[in-house]
Amino acid sequence: MSQTSQTTATDQAVQRIQNNPAYQRLRSKRNAFAWVLTILMLVVYYGYVGLIAFDKELLAKPIGTGVTTLGMPIGLGVILFTVVITGIYVYRANTEFDAITERILKDAAQ
């Protein structure tokens, strides 16, 4: 197969995928889900930064009689939240999104 005919075949396959309604739904679903997670992450992260900027006294309050302040568990919560939403995205991508992608690729190959 020559380079030109191979490029044409690839272009046609890409066009078939882009015209597939399932691909359009996948893109829409995946983008909406990613935006929701992004907004949640921004709210949590900038909420924490906002607390640092505007309510240092709250974060500086000691927990119990030790030296650990309230800011430490809240900061840890931000980190754990990041890990959890990453896990949620990976789980959904590996189950739902990958299954749809596989069906779209099979349809395009026909």
Automatic annotation (TrEMBL):
Transmembrane feature ranges: 32-54, 74-91
One GO term describing the cellular component: plasma membrane
Domain of life: Bacteria
A Pfam family of this chain: DUF485
Entry keyword set: Membrane, Transmembrane, Transmembrane helix
Protein name in the entry: DUF485 domain-containing protein
